[in-house]
Design brief:
By secondary structure, this protein is of the alpha+beta class. The strands form three sheets. It has a four-stranded antiparallel beta sheet, covered by helices on one side. Helix 1 runs parallel beside helix 4, helix 4 packs across helix 8 and helix 5 packs antiparallel against helix 8. The protein has three domains: about 110 residues, Butyryl-Coa Dehydrogenase, subunit A, domain 1 (Orthogonal Bundle); about 110 residues, Beta Barrel (Butyryl-CoA Dehydrogenase, subunit A, domain 2), CATH 2.40.110; about 150 residues, Up-down Bundle (Butyryl-CoA Dehydrogenase, subunit A, domain 3), CATH 1.20.140. The longest helix is centred in the middle third of the chain and has 37 residues. About 50% of the residues are buried. A hairpin with a 2-residue loop joins strand 8 and strand 9. It contains twelve helices and nine strands.
Length: about 375
């Protein structure tokens, strides 16, 4: 399908593209090297861009836009730096369970500080022994009077060190399996909550990744998101809606790789001519172009399906996420190849793209998990056609 955008959508894209060019791209290597959350820059993004409540409904005080606009923003930021993009964007994932399951009063209360730019929300699902295996998680929440007591540890939590609150999934009835999972809004200052060690990662180093530890953590009963034991449903809805966002990160990284590779090929000389004249290099650039365009088409198709509440979203969001994340890895690796030995050094930006891109094939469901889901839909569809 041919992707077209409204004038308003293009204005949002161009606003973020200009900010990224001026404020993010020039400092991407610096914050990667520091391995620190760029607090001042993120605060500036929240103040100047004015898009903190981009996808929050207008009835809660947000801007009321959808997945397409969020993907445009995420693609442009990721084109500048995937790590810094996550520093701003992690709240988009963290607040989705609230949008999917909370009451109107809960949503209005909890999302107000997000809209104002005063805080972010981290999504707490993965655990040390259960990443993509959600039913295998062990965190539990026991109701005692007017409180829930949460015990467990969450792992690989993006933005946890910066967040002011967390959407936390825990068993309230372990015997019911996934039908016994609930979701809670847990403030950073909740008694018994500790932000654990920061991971020293291969890539996305500007974005902090931490454990979040709950030791008899007390949460008011009214902080239960939606209804008890429906948390797994909220998690599924969240992941289906968020995967186009991850796919758009892949588009941004792949596009950056292509930009750098083509620019370098036009400047670098070997054997008395620009390497852009070599067919071998041209074929690499052509393959990268194909992957970028195909990724973009799949990503925005899934985004439009999300905005339309299409019943096939789960399948197509998995396809977009799997394809775009692997395409980003391939494009980043090919960009290093075009640069040759220089591409392997920190003096040039493409080695960072290669390191950053790999996480896209892992978080929010590995490529293999996406393929499991895609295959399940294919088999189900084939059975229905008999």
């Amino acid at each position: 399908m041919y992707q077209s955008y409204t004038e308003e959508q293009l204005q949002i894209r161009d606003l973020v593209r200009d900010f990224t060019r001026r404020e993010i791209t020039p400092v991407a290597a610096e914050w990667d090297e520091k391995n620190q959350h760029p607090t001042e820059l993120v605060n500036k993004m929240r103040r100047e861009l004015g898009i903190n409540g981009l996808t929050i409904p207008e009835e809660y005080g947000g801007m009321g836009y959808g997945s397409v606009e969020q993907c445009l923003v995420t693609e442009e930021m990721s084109r500048g730096c995937l790590g810094i993009s996550l520093c701003f964007g992690y709240t988009g994932l963290g607040m989705l369970p609230i949008l999917k399951g909370a009451t109107k009063d809960q949503a209005k209360k909890w999302l107000e500080p997000v809209i104002s730019g005063d805080m972010g929300i981290s999504f707490c699902l993965s655990e040390p022994g259960a990443g993509s295996d959600v039913p295998g998680m062990s965190t539990r929440a026991e109701k005692k009077g007017d409180k829930y007591i949460i015990n467990g540890t969450k792992q690989w939590i993006t933005g946890a060190g910066d967040a002011g609150a967390y959407t936390v999934f825990a068993y309230t009835d372990k015997g019911r399996g996934t039908r016994g999972v609930s979701c809670f809004y847990v403030p950073r200052n909740a008694p018994g909550l500790t932000v654990g060690k920061k991971e020293d990662k291969l890539g996305i180093r500007a974005s902090g990744t931490h454990q979040v530890i709950f030791e008899d953590c007390e949460v008011p009963a009214e902080n239960l998101i939606g209804k008890e034991n429906l948390g797994f449903i909220y998690a599924l809805h969240t992941l289906n809606a968020s995967r186009p966002y991850v796919a758009s990160m892949g588009v941004g990284v792949a596009q950056a790789a292509l930009d750098y590779a083509t620019r370098y090929a036009r400047e670098r000389e070997q054997f008395g001519q620009k390497i852009a004249t070599f067919q071998a290099v041209q074929h690499i650039l052509a393959d990268m172009s194909i992957l970028v365009e195909a990724s973009r088409e799949l990503t925005y198709k899934a985004a439009r399906m999300s905005d339309a509440n299409d019943s096939n979203l789960a399948k197509y969001s998995a396809i977009a996420k799997a394809f775009s994340s692997e395409a980003a890895v391939k494009c980043a690796t090919d960009a290093v190849q075009v640069y040759g030995g220089y591409g392997y050094t920190k003096e040039y930006p493409v080695e960072k793209l290669m390191r950053d891109s790999k996480i896209l094939t892992i978080f929010e469901g590995t490529t293999q998990i996406q393929k499991n889901e895609i295959a399940a839909y294919a088999i189900k569809e084939a059975a229905q056609k008999k």
